[in-house]
Amino acid sequence: MTQQRLDRDSFVPMYYQLQQALISDMDEGVHRPGDRLPSESELCDSYGVSRTVVRQALRELEISGRIVRRKGQGSFVTPPKTSERLVQTLTGLHEDVTSRGGTMRSDVRRLERVPATPEVAAELAIAPGDPVIVLDRLRFVDEIPWVVVVTYLPYALCPGLLEEDLTHQSLYALLEDKYGIEISWGRRQVEAVPAPAAVGQALDIRRGSPVLLLSSTSYAPDGRPVEYFVASHRGDLSRFEVRLERRRGVPRNPLLTVQSAGT
Of 65, 162, 196, 203, which one has the greatest count of Cβ atoms within 10 A? Predict the structure, then answer.
């Protein structure tokens, strides 16, 4: 391999320079998701550095989630994590993915009218047993199973939704453009949990692997609840960005409360 140049006179540590060089190669498509990186010895020869430097660089890349290291096989580039914004704008996963040039597809596993359970009724401010639409989707980002999401909406708001094809459509865009339902704000809870067997099977991960469990209720401008969902995101592929603001005179609260993006 042709030897690459690192700045040996720089105050920046050699392992960090190598780490950034490899990240640059990943971002430019030299090493694509799923590709195996050159071996430790090949990286040593290519960059003229010690094995200690190479191992530290690879360790940092693994910690940051850019690569996965498999014993006896080598280091492999991971798919980029999808960021969902929790505050900046009230967008859904469909908008977040397509805005970065990715593709979004949903396998609609259930779409029907059902009576609201007490939990769902409480979130949507309706009576238990009132009709709701349940929408169960396995969602794929760039054809990788990414999230299982079950959404509930009051049936009276959009009965025609039962006839829609939601394979490639954004639910939020459909609600706004066709049914005139404006979603103004929301509240969301996020917690890390082990994947149940059914979720693990759907997301192609092992049972017990970490998933990010989101529960969210979205509201119209007048404060009326219009949507409640529970979503299980793959923990190895998803991250959430949160903007925090400090306001003078606001009492401290041990709970972090943010407005949320939808699905």
Answer: 203
Number of domains in the chain: 2
- CA–chain centroid gap for 160, Å, is 29
Alpha carbons 190 and 193: distance in angstroms, whole number: 10
User: Which residues, other chains included, contact 45 with Cβ-Cβ below 8 Å and sequence gap of 6+?
Assistant: 1, 3
Q: How many CB atoms lie within 10 A of CB 126?
A: 18
CA 154 to chain centre: 26
- Do 37 and 111 fall into the same domain? no
Structure tokens at 205: 């991960």
Token pair recorded at residue 78: 């991971």
Same domain? For 234 and 154 the reply is yes
- pTM of structure: 0.61
CATH assignment of the domain containing 41: 1.10.10.10
| Per-residue pLDDT tens digits for 218-260 | 988 888 899 999 999 998 877 766 665 555 554 444 443 333 3
Domain CATH code at residue 210:
3.40.1410.10
Three-class DSSP category at 124: helix
- Please check whether residues 186 and 230 belong to one and the same domain: yes
- Residue 12 is given by DSSP the state S
Cross-strand pairs, 59: none
Report whether 37 contacts 76 (CB < 8 A): yes
Provide the 8-state DSSP code for 49.
Answer: -
